[in-house]
Amino acid sequence: MRILVATDAWHPQVNGVVRTLTMMAEAAKAFGVDVSFLNPQSFRTFAMPSYRDLRVALPYPAKIAQLIAEARPDSIHIATEGPIGLLARRHCRQQGLPFTTSFHTRFPEYISARLPIPESWIWAALRAFHGPSQAVMAATPALASELRARGFRNVVLWPRGVDATHFHPRPVDLGLPRPVFLCVGRVAVEKNLEAFLDLDLPGTKVIVGDGPARAALAQKYTQAVFLGARQGEALAQAYAAADVFVFPSKTDTFGLVLLEALASGLPVAAFPVTGPRDVIDSAPVGALNDDLRAACLSALIISPQACLEFAARHTWKASARAFVDNITDIRHVDPESDGIEFTVEHPRFVADLAQVYCPPVGVRDTSRG
Question: 130-178 pLDDT, tens per residue?
């Protein structure tokens, strides 16, 4: 089976979307699935004015059509709502090709943090973008429920994973006063980093990542340590050198870094919002509190072993299996109808539908022949 993924987020970007797509594609090989990518490397790009490190592709319809034809995919998945995603969607609609999509980024909150554009306008545009999709993949049940409440249809679950062979505890000393409170991610306004950097905490605050706000924050918070962007082993060592992982963002749809931290034996301190709340739930691996300082101090006494055991249950193989199943289990979707018809190959899937899909859903169980 060949799946083509159209994405505006790609290397050298360092973010959860790129890691999710690349790790999923690698794990999907175990199921005999070949995942290829229609990405910005095939086009000219330009740097975003407010974020020079983020380059946006300049695709054109003929090239999009050519690349899709050359890939000869059995299924097309559109991962982002940028220029590549928009033109891939347009091509699929014009050619009558079914496709699936996924929801990774809360653009309404991100855009409104920078521009005076009402969030409702952006949500309306996102509903229109994902409307014809056979399945809109969301990382957590809470996000899936929110999307359905906002008028998105055909929402399914696609959980995330972590590579525990890469992210794991090991003896690393940064030579900083302990405890070390670590935050990893894009250094930008929507990540709410000042909520973390303003805290009165013992030890050292460490930021790993780069972005448009880094210079200003480093100048303002001279007591914090800004290590810049790290990847591979250097990133894994940064996790291993810390005592608590702090996640101040209130807008992330998931927060892949949460699983990376837990796999490194780091308890999580965060606000009780979508993302950390969905990842951690009631597991004793983090402290969620509207008082972020209290959460940070509470996380210091959480067992690292509990974090490791929790992370071990979230693998990329399971994530890839869910992604592939979301595509192959859906035999027919009529985007113009109010409901969805599925051909279900396994009895267990019938029970899962009640929790995963929004009504009205028509289910045809073929497991009995």
Answer: 999 999 999 988 889 999 999 999 999 999 999 999 999 999 999 999 9
Q: Are 136 and 101 in contact (CB under 8 A)?
A: yes
Which residues, at least 6 apart from 23, have a Cβ–Cβ distance to it below 8 Å? 161, 163, 316, 319
Q: What is the dihedral of CA 188, 193, 198, 204, to 10 degrees?
A: -110
- Hey, is 358 helix, strand or coil? coil
Cα 124 from Cα 15, distance rounded (Å) = 25
For residues 304 and 244, the answer to whether their CB atoms sit within 8 Å is no
Strand partners, 89: none
* Integer angstrom CA distances of residue 77 from 7, 186, 248, 358: 9, 25, 31, 20
Cα 127 to Cα 131: distance, rounded to the nearest angstrom: 6
- Mean pLDDT check: name the lowest of 108-117, 295-304, 329-338: 329-338
Which residue type is seen at 180? V
Percent of the chain with pLDDT over 70: 87
Q: What is the pLDDT of residue 110?
A: 67
């009631």: which residue's tokens? 282
| Domains of the chain and any CATH numbers | 2-162+318-328 (3.40.50.2000), 180-311 (3.40.50.2000)
The pTM (predicted TM-score) of the whole model is: 0.79
Q: Which residue has the tokens 């309306």?
A: 124
